[in-house]
Amino acid sequence: MASTKHFINDPTHLVLTALHSLTLTNPSLSVDLDNKTVFRTSTDPSTVSLISGGGSGHEPAFSSFVGKGLLTAAVAGTIFASPSAEQIRNAILHRVGGGRRAGVLVVVMNYTGDILNFGMGVEKARAQGMHVEMVVVADDAGVGRAKGGKVGRRGIAGTCLVLKIAGALAEGGASLKDCARVARLVADNIVSVGSSLSHVHVPGRSGAVEDEMAQDEIEIGMGIHNEPGSERAKASLPELVKKMLAQMLDPRDKDRNFLNVSNEDKTVLLVNNLGGVSVLELGGITNEVVRQLKDTYGIEPVRILAGTYMTSLNGMGFSISLLKLQDTELGHGKSMLELLDSPAEANGWSAAVQTGTWEAKSTPSAPKEISTQEEEAKPTNLRSKFHNLGLRNCADVSGSRLRLRAEGFRDCTEATHRRRTRHYELRHNCRRR
Fold this sequence. Notes:
By secondary structure, the chain is an alpha/beta fold.
């Protein structure tokens, strides 16, 4: 069951204070609370600006991705609701676009409200002379071709990889044309799917969560706004991961086969926490996903990211994203992998392992399993320790404790301390004589 308890129940106060907090934890940021926009205070006007955003409730995406090497600004709506076109126009023109010669790239997820409002904001900025490109990410394989229709698939956590790669490219001085082209190339080569144990409760809304699942049910393919998935099932973790990977990778599923990935392709894996899964459990989930990718599909990702990147408030679920690496045609230092590994000064980007560490990795040997019987049969040196102390058995130990207590000592440590003190006093007195 989803919890309906929150520390902050006023959704407006919650969003505004959360946005303001980012300026406290990253001194390079500023916030325009009237327009719910977090932006970098100072940037190089000769580089492309990268803007993203959407409804609040998906943190760290998008506001916590603002920082050097990632986003220039993020525009937030209320919880699970798109920001307005005016907010977006204001961000482009007044928060990142003033004096900007290189232009602005806007990356948005494929939701009707976001497409309409970001699209209108972009057009208004263009009408005022700004060079703006817009890229839409739709990576969710939980929505098949038949169900998606003309609207298409939703955007989910794979968007974070698009933002990271495009942000690093923009930071490196690439043109608006190249930034937009590479962002589209990444978006076209990502497939994702999510699952959850329950729907989430939005702060400020009264009553219980609607259409809640049974205790033993899992919604496979559920969206990040409580949207229904492809099915509800009762499954163990291995069974669940098997279903999720099949939706992403099975070439026989013509409704969902959006990306062909072979064991010869280099890939990046992102296992994303939807907000409510413990770090411990996410580790177990990541292990299962990596195991099945290798055993079933022969896929061994060259990068594995696991953590909290795009949430659904405190959602009790996770998503899997797989990026098939492609040639950016931009030369050394600007491959997808190098851009992904490039450092970012953004609080929400939690991939800390550098390129050299990944490249130097060796396959770790599996830890030797020791049976309970072997462990219990292993000899100890306890007996020799007893003899070194002048003790023959446990009875002697107990007797020694009783004698210490009878002499006014609480334990062996106190007795030793007193004896050492007495020995020092005797030596000191001898020297004085």
